[in-house]
């Protein structure tokens, strides 16, 4: 990578996989100082950096400003932003706040960006760090890490939707969200700041709750699944989306409508027609024997449905099956 201008922000990237690796490139391109916590790919990144093959950015090789294996290695550093690109595992031990505590204690000015899937993922973070800006992020970035530090990014799609949690956060927190969005744009991506990010998060849930478990359970891409049993495959995905639309209506999330769902589903329909189906993140995790985001995407949703007395028979069935798949993967890993 060419030499960069003086850093505009100090950023800790926690989770340098496919999405994190692309955002690393954008932040570096924006002139940021980026410390990347690389866990499974540490040796490859430390030695060779990242290699990105992208229609948007071309063929590029680049390195984080600093590479560490564990977050404790930078506990004495101060960051403007902590960008969390790890999977979301509510109820895990240690929890995400426990993992971040060494770099956030007594640093209320550091903004926490949650670039994660699912709903109801922000509460435990803001409970642990009530003074810090908590910025919830919704990602549209179809990238795959094909090997340690090697990323394939075959589409132009690049959108990072951002908003404070809660939406009534102080103006200084909203300013942090705008500043981070500006960095994403300066780095060559797209970013939007929303007054209420939950509308965008629930709209993304329409995709995540349908395609992630369906593709993970069937070992098909989104486009291929639609071709396997017309019209039943389509009806299953659409039925899941309709259940989420009704739950969103009951809990007061406006803007999650059938029209929005049709636009989301049209992405997979187009991929089915063109033979360009994508391996969604949960399918990638199943193929590689990794833990899957069952609770953040499915568990939180079906439990909220139970609480609000919204029937969700399709999603409850998919949750039970995906939970079992996750259990089997953990058993195979010996965890």
From TrEMBL:
Keywords: NADP, Oxidoreductase. SUPFAM superfamilies: 6-phosphogluconate dehydrogenase C-terminal domain-like, NAD(P)-binding Rossmann-fold domains. Belongs to the ketopantoate reductase family. GO terms for biological process: pantothenate biosynthetic process. This is 2-dehydropantoate 2-reductase. GO terms for cellular component: cytoplasm. Catalyzes the NADPH-dependent reduction of ketopantoate into pantoic acid. InterPro entries: 6-PGluconate_DH-like_C_sf, 6PGD_dom2, ApbA, KPA_reductase, KPR-Related, KPR_N, NAD(P)-bd_dom_sf. It comes from the Eukaryota. It catalyses: (R)-pantoate + NADP(+) = 2-dehydropantoate + NADPH + H(+). It comes from Aspergillus versicolor CBS 583.65.
